[in-house]
């Protein structure tokens, strides 16, 4: 578990992200498949923004555009006013699958970023500090096959955080965890964000997860995705599922998603 000492909220750090009138489409057997439809939104410096919407509506595609993994078909994505034209170590993605290298131990997996940048010799202390932050300092020499799902996802998170990112991009990082581990990891990610102050973009299908973690929740329509609502969640941490305000917000979001009848 992440130490309670991480609870203090620093001055906002991170990066300002601006998504300006972005549309995107894929070429599917010679025919265009629209995925995003004139999406405009911002994520301010140090904000935690969750993206919710139907499966396949284009949320993960939007994260790929922000990460610089591909350019938008139309519009532009900016980081601190500069157009994003490709990947950058300041913008780090954590996916649903940890994708750890099985032949490398925990510490060596976390060290991949510094190693790729030629900084391994000077970043050793940072690697060890990051392992402590995610509660894995006692597992530095363990291999991926010796870890639980939650521990493997902590390694993936440490591998991202060791680079001291300005933007942490989370693409359903807790989707395959059991419910108890998922609850624990939600709190750990929030605590790490509050300590470091980076900007966060989170894609999730879990309405409660978005409400418990984010400062804003963006609700998307079915594909091609457009924004249906931008909802501020002005509640202190830690948050609780039975908070009447969060319960009301949950109903509001489920209604927007057309799922209020099943609530």
- The whole-number mean of residue pLDDT values reads 88
What is the element string, with H for helices and E for strands? EEEHEEEHHHHEHEHEEH
In whole angstroms, the N-to-C terminal distance is: 32 Å
Strand order of the largest sheet: 6-7-8-3-9-10
Q: Please, how many domains? A: 2
Main β-sheet, in a few words?
A: 6 strands, mixed
Beta-strand percentage range: 15-25%
Overall strand count: 10
Tell me what you see in this structure.
This protein folds into two domains: 13-90 and 167-262, Rossmann fold (3-Layer(aba) Sandwich), CATH 3.40.50; 102-164. It has helices at 59-67, 106-110, 112-116, 124-133, 149-161, 179-196, 207-213, 244-256; strands at 17-28, 31-43, 48-52, 74-79, 82-83, 91-94, 167-171, 199-203, 216-220, 227-232. It has 263 residues and is α/β, with parallel strands linked by helices. The chain has a six-stranded mixed β-sheet with strand order 6-7-8-3-9-10, with helices on both faces. A four-stranded antiparallel β-sheet has the order 2-1-4-5. 30% of the residues lie in helices and 24% in strands. Helix 4 (124-133) packs across helix 5. It is built from eight helices and ten strands. The longest helix has 18 residues, at 179-196.
């Amino acid at each position: 578990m992440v130490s309670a000492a991480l609870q203090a909220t620093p001055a906002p750090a991170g990066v300002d992200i601006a998504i300006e009138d972005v549309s995107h489409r894929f070429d599917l057997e010679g025919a265009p498949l629209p995925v995003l439809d004139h999406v405009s939104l911002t994520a301010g410096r140090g904000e935690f923004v969750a993206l919710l919407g139907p499966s396949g509506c284009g949320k993960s595609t939007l994260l790929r555009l922000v990460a610089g993994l591909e350019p938008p078909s139309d519009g532009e994505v900016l980081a601190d006013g500069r157009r994003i034209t490709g990947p950058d170590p300041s913008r780090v993605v954590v996916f649903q699958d940890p994708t750890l290298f099985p032949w490398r131990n925990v510490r060596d997996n976390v060290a991949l970023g510094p190693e790729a940048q030629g900084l391994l010799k000077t970043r050793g202390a940072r690697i060890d500090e990051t392992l402590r932050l995610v509660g894995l300092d006692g597992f530095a020499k363990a291999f991926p096959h010796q870890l639980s799902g939650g521990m493997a996802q902590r390694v993936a998170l440490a591998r991202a955080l060791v680079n001291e990112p300005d933007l942490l991009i989370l693409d359903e990082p807790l989707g395959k965890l059991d419910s108890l581990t998922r609850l624990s990891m939600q709190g750990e990610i929030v605590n790490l964000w509050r300590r470091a102050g980076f900007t966060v973009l989170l894609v999730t299908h879990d309405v409660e997860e978005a409400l418990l973690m984010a400062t804003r929740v963006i609700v998307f329509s079915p594909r091609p995705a457009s924004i249906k609502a931008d909802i501020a969640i002005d509640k202190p941490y830690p948050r609780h599922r039975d908070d009447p305000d969060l319960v009301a917000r949950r109903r509001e979001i489920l209604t927007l998603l057309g799922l209020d009848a099943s609530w």
